[in-house]
Amino acid sequence: MWRKFCDGFGLDPDIDGHATNAERVVSRKHLITTIEVALASWDGEALLAMLGELEVPAGKVRSLDVVYSWDRVLSQGLLLRLMHPGCGQVDLPGPRLRVFDERGDEFQQAHVAPPAFDEHGDAIRGWLRAAADERAETGRVGGDLLATWAIETDWACGR
């Protein structure tokens, strides 16, 4: 692949420090500079086309706003459009994994907007006080807090 790349861009593949992969790894900084100089005058689309012709794997790096505007991303549920009581519509990254049941139907999980600042603060502080009091009485520490929270909120059941 290195030789194809060099042939396509007029570089000498056997230049000192670049002939073997081991040499290219050792002289990485110099190699990067050499490649940047060779590619500096190329337009992005033309460069990708040339790399494709040379069968050198390459792809365009896209910004998040471009990625999240693709129909495919939207159809896969990778963008959640939620209504927030204080902000209106908010767009959040969706789950990366999709789960299907034995019939092949996709498991649909209800998503909600993130809470407003301190929206659940009183409940959380109360729970922490109760857990601290219980720890003081029983001596339980560590993971018991998470287990207690999961049971009390039905978190373990996805509710």
Order of helices and strands: HHHHHHEEHH
Helicity range of the residues? 40-55%
Report strand order across the widest sheet: 1-2
Count of spatially separate domains: 3
| Fraction of residues in β-strands | 5-15%
Low-confidence stretches: 154-159
How many strands? Answer: 2
Mean of residue pLDDT?
Answer: 84
- Give me the secondary-structure category: mainly alpha
What radius of gyration results from the CA coordinates? 27 Å
**Any idea what the shape is?**
elongated
Describe the largest sheet.
2 strands, antiparallel
Our measurement of the CA-to-CA distance between the termini, rounded to an integer number of angstroms, reads 52 Å
Our count of helices gives 8
Keywords, please?
mainly alpha, 159 residues, two-stranded antiparallel ribbon, 2 strands
Walkthrough of the structure:
45% of the residues lie in helices and 8% in strands. A two-stranded antiparallel sheet has the order 1-2. The protein has 3 domains: 2-53, no CATH class; 63-114, no CATH class; 121-157. The two termini are 52 Å apart. It has helices at residues 2-9, 21-26, 28-39, 44-53, 64-67, 71-75, 121-138, 144-152, and strands spanning 79-84, 88-93. A hairpin with a 3-residue loop joins strand 1 and strand 2. It contains 8 helices and 2 strands, in the order H-H-H-H-H-H-E-E-H-H. The longest helix is centred in the last third of the chain and has 18 residues, at 121-138. It is mainly alpha-helical and 159 residues long.
